[in-house]
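User: Structure with nicotinamide-adenine-dinucleotide, tokens only please.
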Amino acid sequence: MNVETKSLPLVGHFVGGRAVPEAPRTQPVYDPALGRPVARVALASAAEVGAVAEIAHAAYRDWAATPPAKRAQVMFRFKALLERDADRICAAISREHGKTLDDARGELGRGIEVVEFACGAGQLLKGEHSRDVGPGIDAWSELRPLGVVAGITPFNFPAMVPMWMFPMALMCGNAFILKPSERDPSASLILAELLAEAGLPDGAFNVVQGGREAVDALIAHPLVKAVSFVGSTPIAEAIYRAGTAQGKRVQALGGAKNHAVVMPDADLDAAVPAMIGAAYGSAGERCMAISVAVCVGDAAADALIARLKPAMAAIKVGACGQPGVDMGPVITAESKARIEGYLAEAAADGAELAVDGRGVSVEGHPEGFFVGPCLIDKVKPGMSVYADEIFGPVLCVVRVETLAEAIGLINAHEFGNGTCIFTRDGEAARDFTDRVEVGMVGVNVPLPVPVAYHSFGGWKRSLFGDLHVYGPDAVRFYTRKKAVTQRWPASGIAEKTQFAFPSNAR
Ligand code: NAD
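Assistant:
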């Protein structure tokens, strides 16, 4: 590390209720709009992760024994503190991620909705009771916490994705270790501070910063009983395999290529602004971003492109602090180079660059990682720009002849996170929602991210594991069942030994 980086503020770990002020190893954190480091983030070693797991485990017992109603009081206070400090959290998100403040507020708002859902989780933790399952015998099933659970999160939602996980994990009585993205780690520290201020016992929520070494150590640690992961598909798959091989419960959400079908009868007055927001909001760095428009018929494609072009020309690209900005930079210089590489490949493969966002310049930010909105027409399934997740402001147009062809195309893709259809035809919409092999489906809704009381998750290689995140699935993921069968024989009744297996048959 050079001297200049050493003097930058440290984004460290948060362990046992306190921020850790030092770190032997760090790496730079960039402001992507400036294209230069603004902080340095700690990189946890395996030994540091082990120490955190012990601290979390020590906190777990008391927290698990805390009544759900008392846990909920912490969550209620946490929600109020999130609202009090929203500006501070959103400023940290925007500085390190590059998204606009408005977009950061949207992200935080969706995270707060999960906290609100978690406040009522006592209702979902009740278990089941049966009286008289045998003579004088009652039985019940309880939902018990797992112990220490970990969350490993991506850069694109540094507040919301952690909040998909820890509010419900904590409400279920677990201790939590968060390993946020090393690209934008500051929001996680603010969340940790606010949980402590809300009265969460020390050690019940911890943040370990770092990269692969920290992740590997979490997956391998015997005290970590379950892992929630959100990130790219290759890492999701590797984490799912490594974690489950060690007997851990794992949910690993991966990448996406979300198709929007545009039917010939679509209301373009509504579909075009929806598509613009869903493709280019957050510079396309959303796992639910629309990255492919599948137009049914050439007329639908031509009409869509004719409307998209002027709307795209009006998109203001810039740094989050600049007035009127709609779209910020992408996360790293490598990401910008990768996106631009896909555009060059698409052109070489015979697709048409209807709008080329390369070479955009932003006043006062010559080194920023900016890519303007891009639109590529006449994309075919064999092209890399179609097959791969690009994770940038790039919308591909694929032309098909029928809805059946559109559904077949979507079903053949390796990812199955989100999709939507723009149509005025209820029969087409019903057929689409029935047959499309995707986990989250919208009808005239471009970003069908489920609300907090429905769980979120994709199909195919967009999710490894059985259970989705937040909502009712979170209770299933973060608890294990214990079934108790209890008999209190009436006094004075002599017991007889039974060698036959006990049943109600006799
Ligand atoms: P990423 O996979 O690079 O990183 C995610 C996390 O894994 C980070 O905490 C990172 O430190 C860690 N990590 C990275 N490389 C690792 C390795 N080799 N071994 C162990 N851990 C490693 O993802 P990203 O670039 O931060 O985020 C973007 C990706 O996340 C996109 O693919 C996007 O689709 C996906 N995503 C998916 C969802 C969803 O719900 N399915 C939501 C948000 C983001």
